[in-house]
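Sample A.
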Amino acid sequence: MLLKVGQLAKQICLSVRTLHHYDEIGLLSPSVRTPAGHRLYNSADISRLHRIQALKQLGLSLQQIADIIQENSQPLGEVIAQQIAQLEQEMEQAAQLKSKLIKLQSNLQTGNESDMTSWLDTLALMNVYEKYLTEDEIDELNSHALALKHEIEHDWPVMVKKLQEMMDQKVSPSDKDAQAFVIRWTEMLERLVGHNPHLLLKVHLMADDIEMQLQRGISSAMREYLGDVMGSVHRDIFSKYLSPAQMQRMDMHRQKNKAAWPPLITAVREKMQAGVSPESEEVRSLAIQWKNLFETSVSGGDPEITEKIRTAYACEPLLTQGTGLDLALFKFIRQAMDNL
């Protein structure tokens, strides 16, 4: 098939001016020239044009598109696959938007119209939720929240206020009342997610979002204080299993790489829940990370400390409360580590 510029523009709903511009910048020039001097586009040109338009829809600049095509670094099949994936994502987002609008319409029809501030707050939270949770996870979280409606509406604001007061008064993380408070806090979090450790990890990740902090009134400083108090609780537990010398050695390493644990735990749990074998290469890679992180930030590589810590985790539920860890995950990663 050979097409003149006007014919091609008409068939693909693109302007002649755009095709001329592509020709001028060397992005797409007609490959065929007739004896009379007319320039025509052939099938290879049309295929190249599809690649250009597909890459443009993916948000790339014309210069980036030219570089990709020049280097032939992205085959047309891969570009089409990206287009399909993008369309599927847009369809999913459209379906979610439709669902929200139906709920909104239902509320309005039943006379449950909220004030503007409430709508804005709700929409802000919905947007945060959708960044971190699937639609099923949002539904699950909402069902647990409904069951705990009284606690969330009445007890939770009191607890947030109490937390701020303890911080203002500079209550030590080792204070027994502070520790009892944080244990109660993590118990409520566990109930909020229905004791689902995977969902709990996602809620922790979501809690780092600035918008969520503004809406819930729980700042990064508050979360850090909670972590310090729970860390003190854990230290008291470990001291029952480790000698003073071993505690001193563990204390030297415990604060290292704290931020690296949550994403690693999440990655391991996702593989476990997906049914991936602990002996697989992808889990083996995670097991190596787990082993290295444990040795550098917990045990210092001491095998005796390692074994005692494993015993503590098996016997002390408070060590896993509110962390997203459980015995099933420990068993899974232990199997993976045994194959290293």
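Sample B.
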Amino acid sequence: MIKEVRVLQLIDSLHAGGAERVAVNMANALSSQIERSYLCATREEGLLKESISKEVSYLFLNKQRTMDLKAVRKLGDWVEKEKINVIHAHSSSFFIATIIKVFKGNVKVIWHDHYGNSEFLEQRKFKMLKLCSKYFSYILSVNKPLESWAKLKLKIKAVMYLPNFAVKNENKGINTLKGENNKRIICLANLRPQKDHFTLIEAFGDIVKQHSDWTLHCVGKDFNDDYSKDVKDKIVEFNLNENIFLYGSLPDTTHVLRQCSIGLLSSKSEGLPIALLEYGLSELSVIVTKVGECATVVKEGHNGLLVDAETPKELTKALLTYIEDEDLRKEHALRYREHIEEHYSEKAQIQTILKIYKASIQQG
């Protein structure tokens, strides 16, 4: 255990998204590696609260607006009382972390960029981020384009690409998926436009015409917005109510994944999706679009299948490849699990993060 290192993972919510899972996974993993590990949700709690280790000190701010002085004061007092010396701010929580840095100058801020629309960086608004970046000690980027973008656009040169890592969620299994065993496909993704469920639904519609006993299971937060409505309307339009099932967020992710054979993401844009790594840990064969770091992780033809984004016909072809060749499906699934365990493990990434924390503190 490394003494005199007390690190706070700062995240906006505890909904079951990628950045949120990274923050919780890091807080849990660090609890046995450093003097004290902390986690703070600034705006909302959520399903992931159940996954926080008892060894992690937790705070909920209930922040109501961008500049919530009561929340800032509460966080600042906690940082000072607990003698936290590193704030690891995830995604948009960089703003409140910067405020704490300004008033508590001895704390170091590391910003973790999980930006999911890395295929469309030219559209990114970053005026406030650029202003705050001069207070950061390090920036961690979840893919190479984000790393290059930060070096070019922000006021800091200490930027590095840090792959995400996944851990098995060993919560008690409580959810049983519909459909037949060995004939389930899962898409672990919140209902958000970048995840492009429309391409997925269209592709799966063609699958059902040939393999009506296969089912698709979409697990992820439903925001009950226009996108959600359009997804549900699309399922009805393609007459797929008996083959596609929407579950919302579920707490027993690993248990759910183990009930499936194929893990799929049809995203228009990604960083490095935690779902893709979780598929590997659960020994699923994977199909994913060529966005973000997905191609690097999967290695086409060796660990899984890659398709271009927004190409339903390509996605259908890839699905048929796995559905009609069980031996290939199992071979890829086994290799992919071994690949994830070797290269995207908790152990390897935590050691890198610890070096960054120590270097930040030593900057003085």
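B remarks: Residues 326-343 form the longest helix (18 residues). The mean pLDDT is 94.
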